[in-house]
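Recall the central idea of this unit: under ordinary conditions, the amino acid sequence of a chain determines the structure it adopts. In this exercise we apply that idea directly, starting from the sequence alone.
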Amino acid sequence: MSAALIVAEPETETRGFLERQLSDDGFDVLGASHPGEVFDLAERVRPDLVLVAELELCTRLRDGVPGRSWDRDVPVILLGREEANAVDRARALERGADDYVDRPFAYEELRARIRAVLRRAAPKQDDVLEAGELRIDRPTRCVLVGGRRLLLPAKEFELLAKLAEQPTRVYEKDELLREVWGFRSIGRTRTLDSHASRVRRRIAPLTTTPYVINVWGVGYRLMLPD
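Accordingly, the structure predicted from this sequence is:
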């Protein structure tokens, strides 16, 4: 699945160049010319990384904005000003930037830095997840419910494994659609609901706990046995 990047760059020519080059290198790129666009995309798309041209925007992504909701830990790389110095670079890192790239920049170096930041930010996945009666072995894609084998197609397995990563958490629908199915523009879809329903039906003969529970208006979570 390709990483989703927001390129928050007010200069049209630079933004267009980065959108073209990064797209050619396999990233899913969304351009933004002003902070309002960045905040809209950060909420809707839940990007893997944001490139910003202004320190103030980096700070606002970290601190949040009243009435807005996004991942405040999203990796941010600041594309500095041409006249920037060591103090500017230090200040950017202190205020939450994950990396700083001087202008004029070499695209190859920027691409390498993006990939390095994404590697550092990638969550470490446990090979085996356990929640209630569930035991999910990622390498073998084996699911046990109370010691009995549960066979699941690929996306149903990935949905159940995602929910089991943090069993007490409610996952928003948009987040699940993005991380399990790779959707970028969500729109109206019953994909998640239909898969969740099928997982419940497959689990039913093995336990009285439905496990995959719809939290109305929000998303899904695991229901664990008492």
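The chain has a mean pLDDT of 89.
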